[in-house]
Amino acid sequence: MKYTAKCVRSGDWWAITVPEIKGVFSQARRLDQVEAMTREAIALMLDVDPHSFDIDVQPEPAAGGAQLTQGA
Length: 72
What we know:
Layout: E1 2-10, E2 13-17, E3 25-28, H1 34-46, E4 54-60
């Protein structure tokens, strides 16, 4: 199974939603942490092994057109 991690910059954080699973939300400080945080949230919600599925990280531009950066 593959899930989508839609993330948008919100202040100093990346706000994460998983549209395939109602109620799965998380946040990460850096874009390179989004996959791990999403994986943990999904595993907890579905009570499955965190490595039993794939994650597709899809960053979205923040309001106002802020730049997307890996370290941001």
